[in-house]
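Format notes (please read before filing issues)

Several people have asked whether sequences and C-alpha cells are stored in separate files. They are not. Every record keeps both together, in the order shown below: the sequence lines, then the C-alpha cell lines. Line labels are part of the format and must not be stripped during preprocessing.
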Amino acid sequence: MTTEPVRGTREMLSGMTPSLDTAEYVFCTTADVALANGASHNALAWFREDEGFSLVLEIAQARRFGFDCALPMRRITLTVFSSLEGIGLTAAVSDALTRDGIPCNMVAAYHHDHVFVPSDKAERAMAVLIDLQAASA
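Then the structure lines:
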C-alpha cells in the first residue's frame, strides 16, 4: 500500500479495490446528548449536526440503544489512500451506483472513502464498483 495519498481521479478509481465489510450498520440520529455520548463509544462514525448527533452503529448496538434499524446497510471500503484534495472519486462512485439504481451514503475518512449501501444491494454494488475500477485501469 502506498504511503502517499493519491490525488488523480483515474489513479483513485483504478486503485480503489473495494472491500465489503461483513457487518451490517445503521445510520442513527438523536438530539439526546446522554444517549449520543453512550452510543458514541460503539460508533463506527459520528457527526454533530445542528439537529443533533448522527451515528453509524453496527445493527446490534443500534438495537441495544433503541435506534430505528429499518434500513440496514453494508460498508464498502475503497482501499485506495485517497487524498483529501482528490477530485472525482466520490462523484464517479456515486454516479456508477446511481446508474444501477443503488442508493449510497459516502463517508470520507482520512485514509479511505467508505460507501454505505442497503444490505440487499451490497453484492450488486460490489460488482458495479469492481467494473468501474477495471474500466479505469
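For reference, the curators noted about this record: The chain has one domain: 9-136. The two ends are 17 Å apart (CA to CA).
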